[in-house]
Amino acid sequence: MVSEAELESLLSVIRELLPELGEGFLLRCLQQYDYSSELVINNLLEGRLTPALEQMDRATPRPVKEKVPDVLDVRSNVFDDDEFDVFRREQVDMSRVWKGRRKGENARETLNDKQHIAQQKARYQAYETVVEEIVLQPGETGEAYALDAYDDEYDDTYEMSQVGANDLDGDSLLSRRPFTVPQILRKGNKPELEEEGEDEEEEETLQNNVNRDQFVQDPALLRERAEARRAAMHQRKGFRPEPRPSGVVGQPKGQGQNKETLLDRRKKEAQKGRGANHNRRNMADRKRNKGMIPS
């Protein structure tokens, strides 16, 4: 697509040679031959135009461009037709237009300007006077002043009802139902704990129950009590044998191994399935069943 200036230049070149042709016809020829002025001139002189161009009137004038509507004609703004609308008003009051701080004004003049107070005075005059009592003239009624004789009546809706009069206060509730300790906080229902912390609590209780006049307790008595507590704790927990060492250590090479060592090694080999090679246990059993490993 060519610009408007380039199109005018192409038309002027063709019209210098063929001034009798219309600009509309030449524009159509340029569009047909991809805006090449040489092809248009050559085909016109040799008479080799396309059938569509041959049927077209060669004196066709240039089409008139459609007038684009002005932006101001379709403009829609909240400030349309106001006193500062320069697009629809010939003159604007420039005394009301200024840039920055208005000249001739200072803080004292601004504070002394009572124009705003005068404008608001009429609005607050309606709330200025409060009439508490109106003297009716003979022949006048309260309806003329929108007065209601029962508008200020005392509300005695709950006057006869004794709301909360029969409720018991805190002292009455305590006298009827004394305070009791909840079962979960009583010492008799406290479950026996199996931690070693019980030993320390029992020891503190026994020490508190000892005669306060006794300055130093008998160490033998303390050891006997501690041994009794440990025995009672082991009895509650049950007997637990000491764990066997996990490492399998056999006799020196050439002296043979006992049966327990062989069983431990077999168990260790089978338990290796928990580690990296998870198929070790199954393969060991398979080899043993085939007779490859002596059992």
UniProtKB/TrEMBL annotation:
Residues 185-295 are annotated as: Disordered. Residues 193-205 have a biased composition (Acidic residues). Gene3D superfamilies: DNA helicase RuvA subunit, C-terminal domain (1.10.8.10). SMART domains: CUE. GO terms for molecular function: ubiquitin binding. GO terms for biological process: regulation of DNA-templated transcription. InterPro entries: ASCC2, ASCC2_CUE, CUE, UBA-like_sf. Residues 6-49 form the CUE domain. CDD domains: CUE_ASCC2. Residues 221-230, 261-272 have a biased composition (Basic and acidic residues). It comes from the Eukaryota. This is Activating signal cointegrator 1 complex subunit 2. It comes from Liparis tanakae. The gene is ASCC2_0.
